[in-house]
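Folds vary. Our protein:
___
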Amino acid sequence: GEMVADFDIGIMPLFADQEWDKFKCPTKITQYMACGLPSVASPVGFTAEVTSHGVEGFHAATTAEWVVSLTNLIDSADLRQKMGRAAREKAVNVFSVEANSPKMLDVIRRAAEISGG
């Protein structure tokens, strides 16, 4: 976390034709988001669902898209800050323990009721 906080941009390149990459957990992206970083990620598997293209970061499927996305973020501190704020907000509101604890507690309560406990 400490080292990631020193980053300006998070990246997660994946290969769409690799079965392994299709099922990778996008923890890296959520860590970037928690640190308030914009990211560029390959839109492969669940990784494509974690961020909204153009909001918390960019999705890049081709070399040209990677170059454009990274260049846009490198060249604009304002864009990095805007996307970084959106990423942090989504991390807190969607992926944090605080956001998910009530949901998990509800699942546990319902399971206990079903099992008669």
